[in-house]
Amino acid sequence: MGSVYLERLWTAGAELLDNTRVLSPIIKNDFIKGVYTKGNKGGETQECYGSVVIDASGMAALLRRQTPVEWGLEKEILNEDTAVLYQEIREVSGAEDYEYLRIYMDMDVAPGGYYWGISKGKNIVKCGIGNPDERGFS
Ligand SMILES: Cc1cc2nc3c(=O)[nH]c(=O)nc-3n(C[C@H](O)[C@H](O)[C@H](O)COP(=O)(O)OP(=O)(O)OC[C@H]3O[C@@H](n4cnc5c(N)ncnc54)[C@H](O)[C@@H]3O)c2cc1C
């Protein structure tokens, strides 16, 4: 996590539990009240409670996957909602130096997907392509 965000969190009184894995949600009266955690080096399972619980586990969707069926939340990420990406950092002579990410949608180069370029200084470009993860498409 960026140090700027950490600084803000600490200023707001947050406690960081580093090297800690979230195992599952603590569900009481049909609400997620907290999470069960465990240190990466083992030890006892801990309970952490909060007035708001946010599942920020990315693709893992760790908490959402463990919610009761009756809540009706989507648990699996379908292949057609994901993309296969490939990125390289390349030295290219004469590359323009620009400040922002450039992202392109082009049905010939990346049908249904996109490609991008990020200038990383003089003649260095971070570039990649991403296509939907569908059979025969990527
Ligand atoms: C090659 C590539 C290039 C990209 N370039 C860009 C870009 O230029 N601009 C852009 O906007 N996006 C870009 N993206 C997409 C961007 O990286 C993702 O959209 C973003 O990281 C998603 O953020 P997130 O916080 O939801 O999940 P993540 O960044 O995946 O964070 C999830 C975190 O949860 C942690 N976690 C998972 N399970 C547990 C657990 N049980 N206990 C504790 N922690 C857990 C993981 O370790 C991880 O740190 C790129 C992605 C790729 C692959």
What's the layout of helices and strands?
Layout: H1 3-11, E1 20-28, E2 31-39, E3 42-49, E4 83-91, E5 102-104, E6 114-119, E7 124-132
Antiparallel strand pairs: 1-2, 2-3, 4-7, 5-6, 6-7
User: How many H/I helices?
Assistant: 1
Strand order of the largest sheet: 4-7-6-5
Strand count, sense and barrel status of the largest sheet are: 4 strands, antiparallel
DSSP strand tally: 7
| Span between termini | 31 Å
- Spell out which ligands are present: flavin-adenine dinucleotide
Provide key terms for this protein.
138 residues, mainly beta, three-stranded antiparallel beta sheet, 1 helix, 7 strands
Report on the structure:
Helices cover 7% and strands 38% of the residues. The strands form two sheets. Strands 4-7-6-5 form a four-stranded antiparallel β-sheet, with no helix packed on it. A three-stranded antiparallel β-sheet has the order 1-2-3, with no helix packed on it. The chain is extended. The chain contains one helix and seven strands. The protein has two domains: 69 residues, no CATH class; 51 residues, no CATH class. A hairpin with a 4-residue loop joins strand 6 and strand 7. By secondary structure, it is mainly β. The protein binds flavin-adenine dinucleotide. The site of flavin-adenine dinucleotide (FAD) has 11 residues, from strand 1 and strand 4.
Give a concise summary:
Helices cover 7% and strands 38% of the residues. With 138 residues, the protein is mostly beta strands. It starts with a helix and ends in a 6-residue tail after the last strand.
